[in-house]
Specification:
This protein is α+β, with helices and mostly antiparallel strands. It has one domain: Nuclear Transport Factor 2, Chain: A, CATH 3.10.450.50. Helices cover about 25% and strands about 40% of the residues. It has a six-stranded mixed beta sheet with strand order 2-1-6-5-4-3, covered by helices on one side. β4 and β5 form a beta hairpin. The longest helix has 14 residues. The radius of gyration is 20 Å and the shape is globular.
């Protein structure tokens, strides 16, 4: 009996389910990642980082001086934190969620130059924690992005969530 259990365990360990895709290891497939030297590429990578729940890709979007700010309407104050805390919070969200879908909608405002730019755009975010625990957020976020030279990738320096939820 012990031998059959051992063989069964060995057989299961070597099985591959052709109907279940492998988890992506390393970088996402070519053509999925946007050119972060463009604003649209930056937002594409932001979306892909959330959909794949990829903290490495997400971290590449943020400048070392990054600040996230949101309004705590219950207390009537703005709350902010830096890059490290945001990475921890985002990693926790990515681990807790079974699925995340982020859709960027229209750009409400956009101004700046080739080194610094402010973009405000609306979004729809759906976070599935379980089949009975799904959170849907529709809102707007304003980003300040910058880079040292026009050929460098854009990095998010500030993100202000202007959603009311």
């Amino acid at each position: 009996m012990r031998r059959w259990l051992w063989l069964f365990g060995l057989g299961c360990a070597g099985c591959v389910n052709p109907f279940a895709p492998r988890l992506v290891e390393g970088e996402p497939p070519a053509g999925v990642i946007g050119d972060q030297r463009t604003l649209e590429g930056l937002f594409q990578n932001f979306r892909i980082a959330y959909v794949l729940r990829d903290t490495v890709l997400y971290g590449q979007l943020l400048d070392s001086a990054f600040t996230f700010t949101y309004r705590n309407y219950e207390r009537g104050v703005d709350v902010s934190w830096g890059r490290q805390e945001d990475m921890r919070a985002t990693a926790g969200l990515f681990r807790a969620a079974q699925q995340i879908e982020l859709l960027w909608h229209e750009i409400v405002a956009s101004y700046g130059d080739s080194l610094r730019h402010d973009v405000s755009r609306s979004f729809a975010l759906t976070i599935t924690f379980s089949p009975v625990d799904v959170v849907r957020i529709y809102g707007r976020a304003t980003f300040r992005v910058q880079r040292a030279r026009p050929e460098d990738p854009w990095r998010i320096v500030a993100w202000r969530d202007e959603s009311f939820y």
